[in-house]
Design a protein that fits this description.
This is GLUG domain-containing protein. InterPro entries: GLUG. Pfam families: Glug. With 751 residues, the chain is mostly beta strands. The chain has 7 helices and 79 strands. The chain folds into 3 domains: 154 residues, no CATH class; 317 residues, Pectate Lyase C-like; 210 residues, Pectate Lyase C-like (3 Solenoid), CATH 2.160.20. The strands form 7 sheets. It has a 40-stranded parallel β-sheet that branches. The protein starts with a helix and ends in a 6-residue tail after the last helix. The relative contact order is 0.05.
Length: 751
């Protein structure tokens, strides 16, 4: 019986259903407009944004300003089964493969009524009840009603009141109307526009011999050469979009652009424009330098609450351009925006400095191949949301979810490069990235600066309260990779990372870190990493591999931070930092997990070198290596210093092995280790009695010498088995780092 029922249902679903009807807009001036005022609200809200998918002619009469109507048959889950643009008001829809009782007919008037000077828009829908049904929509100008006649039953229309006619701007309800901005008379680049319906832009796939939609606005610049080294036609028109577009939460779906030119997106270039509430779906965007689903090149202005969900954004090769008085190849490709120039150094008004806020991208982003004409400095700058941001631009409260594939440098899950030259406040705040970041196996030359959130944070860039959750993998690059990080690939020149986290796995060749690949490059002030941590596994195939940072050097600082993931490398391998070098500083930080390498392997730092310092820090990591192996530091070189720190994890090695330090040529003061936990009775640079058994390093009964050496008033806390949140005594922990994370690392966190 069950099989028979299924067969009957299958046969029923395979039938074709014809739905016919009319759409009429009729005048009825005698009824007033009380119904409008009594029932405010948007049609799209009532219909859960299912209608408003196109435009067509509708029967209209004086007193209306209706641009058209469209009728669609929808499955119960919202899938579009058939669409027809009405011709003289009549329509006919064919659907199959779905039970007629699951078919919903939606009619939307694209445009609005005018009634007593009040602008209105309207839509209606009805569930079909048998195999052939006439569905007739009659919109009455005065009452704004729709009679949907199905088996003699009337269903009222859902409608809404448009905003004030003097401030609402020009309404856009079709992709043709979008394309008319700039290209049609009376629709200027500095106009005010508002979407009034979801827009089906899939027809753009066949526009312009397959080149698709023509991006709105341009910013004149040199053409240079294309990816094959051939001359590229320059963009000579300097006519960016300077107006306002309010998407009002409506979708534009199926937008297609495939152009061998710069500045590609719905908007090619904007200047002090304001774009809000635009939702792009299922995009297919391909261009050269400055490519994004929404905007190719943004100068100043605001993008608020916009998104690109589904589809691809592809940079089909960088173009040689003159930028910042240098000739270089730049891709600048982002899931939402290719390039964001804040405008600070150009003197824009403070209110117009570029701000991207509350935005989202979930598209696949690919940076194109390195050009055939070899550049001196080929940089890609590809990001899941933005390719490059600089000159005071700010990105806030935004997220990227798509994967990013890179061929050259500066590749990030959220932003390819954050460039804050001249300390102009370029910042990324309260943002997240979830997609994986990967280097292509077809990349040419040594590649670098890959990060789960940002590829390169350069010249005083600021990153605060951000997180990256995807994996970062540059191990397939055939000619090697460097500066690979779970959050940021390269972080330098006074840049700041605060209160941020990376949870994904990271792999590469050199300078590979769970949070940052390289933290460096300041003549007086290097990059700062504060109150941040990483939890993923870090794998490096060569050297300078760290659970938090691969290389920390040139006046860079790590403070109040930690790493708990496993670390695997060859040389200069550390649970927190692979190499701490050239006046680098580590303070109040710890490492857990496991560390496995060959030479210069340490639970906290692999090599501490050239004036670098480590203070008030500890490691409980398992450490294994061949030579220069220490529970805290593998090798402490001349001119470097380690103070007020301890090690308490297993240590295993063959040559130059120590409980805290494997080899020491620098300064060591008040460094302790647990001889029982480490399995080591000696440590380079420290007296033998600094090796304590576990009982004298845990709980309330700490060794008197350790208590005297460590600052338990302002830096350290004891962990006693009598504490409510632990299961037994623990090692001293740091006051500035979350207590729960430290107890969990020691496996003593209670319920």
């Amino acid at each position: 019986m069950a099989s028979q029922a299924r067969a009957e249902q299958t046969a029923e679903n395979s039938k074709s259903t014809t739905i016919e009807g009319t759409v009429v807009v009729a005048a009825n001036p005698g009824n007033g407009n009380a119904a409008v005022r009594d029932n405010p609200g948007r049609a799209a809200d009532v219909l859960e944004k299912r209608p408003a998918r196109g435009n067509a002619a509708a029967t209209s009469v004086p007193g209306t300003s209706v641009d058209g109507a469209v009728v669609r048959a929808l499955a119960d889950d919202g899938t579009v089964l058939d669409t027809e643009e009405t011709d003289g008001g009549a329509f006919s829809l064919e659907v199959c493969g779905v039970s007629p009782t699951d078919v919903r007919v939606v009619c939307v008037l694209n445009g609005e009524f005018e009634l007593d000077g009040q602008r209105l828009y309207a839509a209606a829908e009805r569930l079909v009840s048998d195999s052939r049904t006439d569905v007739n929509f009659t919109f009455t100008d005065a009452e704004i009603e729709a009679t949907v006649d199905v088996d003699g039953e009337d269903v009222a229309v859902a409608y809404g009141i448009a905003e004030d006619a003097q401030t609402d701007g020009d309404h856009v309800g079709t992709v043709e109307q979008l394309q008319a901005i700039e290209t049609a008379a009376g629709i200027p680049l500095d106009g005010t526009y508002r979407l009034v319906a979801d827009i089906d832009a899939s027809v753009t796939r066949v526009w312009n011999d397959g080149s698709g939609f023509e991006p709105i606005g341009t910013d004149g610049e040199l053409g240079g050469v294309d990816k094959d080294g051939a001359p590229n036609e320059p963009i000579v028109d300097d006519e960016p979009f300077t107006g306002t577009l309010d998407g009002d939460g409506y979708e534009i779906y199926g937008l297609c652009i495939d152009r061998e030119r710069n500045q590609v997106g719905l908007f090619g270039a904007t200047n002090t424009a304001h774009v809000s509430g635009v939702e792009l779906r299922d995009v297919d965007i391909t261009g050269l330098t400055d490519t994004g689903a929404l905007i190719g090149k943004m100068f100043a202005g605001t993008v608020d609450g916009c998104s690109a969900i589904g589809g691809d954004v592809i940079n089909d090769g960088a173009v040689l351009l003159e930028r910042r008085d240098e000739i270089e190849f730049d891709a600048f490709v982002g899931g939402l925006i290719g390039e964001v120039d804040g405008g600070v150094e150009d003197g824009v008004d403070e209110s117009d400095v570029a701000l991207v806020i509350g935005c989202e991208a979930d598209v696949f982003v690919e940076e194109g191949e390195e050009p055939a004409a070899e550049p001196n400095d080929a940089v890609g700058q590809a990001g899941g949301l933005i390719g490059q941001m600089r000159n005071g631009a700010r990105l806030e409260d935004s997220v990227a979810r798509g994967d990013v594939l890179g061929f050259t440098n500066d590749i990030g899950g959220l932003v390819g490069e954050v460039d804050a030259s001249f300390d102009n406040g370029t910042a990324v705040v309260d943002c997240e990235a979830f997609g994986d970041v990967r280097a292509s196996a077809d990349s040419v030359g040594l590649i670098g600066e890959y990060g789960g959130l940002v590829g390169e944070n350069d010249d005083n860039g600021i990153i605060k309260r951000c997180a990256a959750h995807g994996d970062v993998d540059a191990s397939d690059a055939p000619n090697g990779s460097e500066e690979i990080g779970g959050l940021v690939g390269q972080h330098n020149a006074g840049g700041v990372i605060e209160d941020s986290v990376a949870t994904g796995d990271v792999s590469g060749d050199e300078e590979v870190g769970g949070l940052v690949g390289e933290n460096d490059d300041g003549d007086e002030v290097g990059g700062l990493i504060a109150r941040s941590h990483a939890t993923g596994t870090v794998t490096g195939h060569v050297k300078q591999i760290g659970g938090l940072v691969g290389t920390n050097d040139e006046n860079a600082t790590v403070e109040d931070s930690f790493a708990t993931g496993d670390v695997i490398g060859v040389e200069e391998v550390g649970g927190l930092v692979g190499e701490n070098d050239d006046d680098g500083e580590i303070v109040r930080s710890f490492a857990a997990g496991s560390v496995d390498g060959k030479e210069q392997v340490g639970g906290l730092v692999g090599e501490n070198n050239d004036g670098a310092t480590i203070d008030q820090s500890y490691s409980i990591a398992d450490v294994c290596g061949d030579a220069e192996v220490g529970g805290l530091v593998g090798e402490n070189e001349s001119g470097s210093e380690i103070t007020e720190s301890y090690a308490a994890g297993p240590v295993d090695g063959a040559v130059d092995v120590g409980g805290a330090i494997g080899v020491n040529d620098g300064a060591v003061d008040e460094v302790y280790w647990d001889v029982t936990a480490t399995g080591q009775t000696q440590s380079a640079g420290s007296p033998g009695d600094n090796g304590l058994d576990t009982e004298r390093m845990q709980g309330d009964d700490l060794d008197e010498a350790l208590v005297a050496a460590f600052d338990f008033d302002g830096t350290w806390d004891r962990v006693s088995g009598t504490d409510a949140d632990v299961t037994r005594d623990g090692y001293p922990i740091l006051q500035e780092i979350e207590r729960e994370a430290q107890l969990e690392s020691q496996a003593i966190l209670g319920q």
